[in-house]
Design a protein that fits this description.
The chain has five helices and seven strands; from the N terminus they run H-E-E-E-H-E-H-E-H-E-E-H. Helix 2 (88-107) packs across helix 5. It has helices at 5-37, 88-107, 121-131, 144-149, 176-188, and strands at 59-61, 67-69, 77-83, 110-116, 137-138, 156-160, 166-171. It has two domains: 1-38; 41-188, Glutaredoxin (3-Layer(aba) Sandwich), CATH 3.40.30. It is elongated and about 75 Å long. Strand 3, helix 2 and strand 4 (110-116) form a beta-alpha-beta unit. 31% of the residues are buried.
C-alpha cells in the first residue's frame, strides 16, 4: 500500500510549526526583557543643543492673569515643563510636578514654570481647577517658546540652573525624586 504524499509531509509540517512557535516565543521573551530592563521615560534625559547654554526666553501672561518671566527666577533652579491637558502622560506626571513644586516652595531653591503645548487656555484652566497647580502656566500661541526649546511633543521638561543655563532635557514623564536627583547632581557640579 502506498502512503499518500500529504501524510508523509505531516510530521515535517508539525515540526516546522513547532519551530516557528519556539522562535516567536523566544523573540517575544527577549522583547519583553528589553522593555522591562530599559530605563523608564521618567528617567530618560535627552541630548539637546541647548545643554550648557542660556535657556531661551520663557515669558508671558499666565492662565491666572499674572505676568511671568522665568529670567526673574535667577538664583533658583527652574523646571520648564511643556504639557497639554489632552496628553495622557502629562496627566500622569502632574502629581509628581505637584510634589516637586511643594518640596521646593518650602526651601525656595527651585520653581516650576509650565508652558502649554498645542492646547487651549480654557481646557488648561479646567485641568488646573481639577488637578491643582501652584506654579505659573504660560500659553504659547504660535508655539514660539516650544520651537525655541526644540520641543517635539509633550511632556518634555528642561532643568535650568541658577545662572539661567540649560542643565537637562527630559523627554517623557518626570518624577519628583528623579528631578531632585538632577538638582543634586547640578549642585555637585557647582551649577
Amino acid at each position: 500500500m502506498t502512503v499518500p504524499i500529504d501524510e508523509r509531509d505531516r510530521p515535517t509540517t508539525r515540526r516546522t510549526g513547532l519551530w516557528v512557535a519556539i522562535v516567536i516565543a523566544t523573540v517575544m521573551v527577549v522583547f519583553v526583557a528589553v522593555l522591562a530592563t530599559r530605563p523608564s521615560a521618567a528617567d530618560r534625559q535627552a541630548l539637546s543643543p541647548l545643554l550648557g547654554k542660556p535657556a531661551p526666553a520663557v515669558s508671558g501672561t499666565a492662565v491666572d492673569g499674572t505676568r511671568v518671566d522665568a529670567s526673574a527666577l535667577r538664583g533658583k533652579f527652574v523646571l520648564v515643563n511643556f504639557f497639554a491637558s489632552w496628553c495622557a502622560s502629562c496627566v500622569q506626571e502632574h502629581p509628581e510636578l505637584v510634589r516637586f513644586s511643594q518640596r521646593h516652595q518650602v526651601t525656595g531653591d527651585a520653581a516650576v514654570v509650565s508652558v502649554i503645548f498645542s492646547d487651549d487656555v480654557a481646557s488648561v484652566r479646567r485641568f488646573v481647577a481639577d488637578k491643582g497647580a501652584t506654579w505659573p502656566i504660560i500659553p504659547d500661541p504660535g508655539g514660539h517658546i516650544a520651537y525655541d526649546f526644540g520641543v517635539r511633543g509633550p511632556p518634555e521638561s528642561f532643568l535650568i540652573d541658577r545662572s539661567g543655563n540649560v542643565v537637562s532635557k527630559i523627554i517623557g514623564t518626570v518624577r519628583a525624586d528623579s528631578l531632585d536627583r538632577l538638582l543634586s547632581e547640578a549642585r555637585a557640579r557647582g551649577l
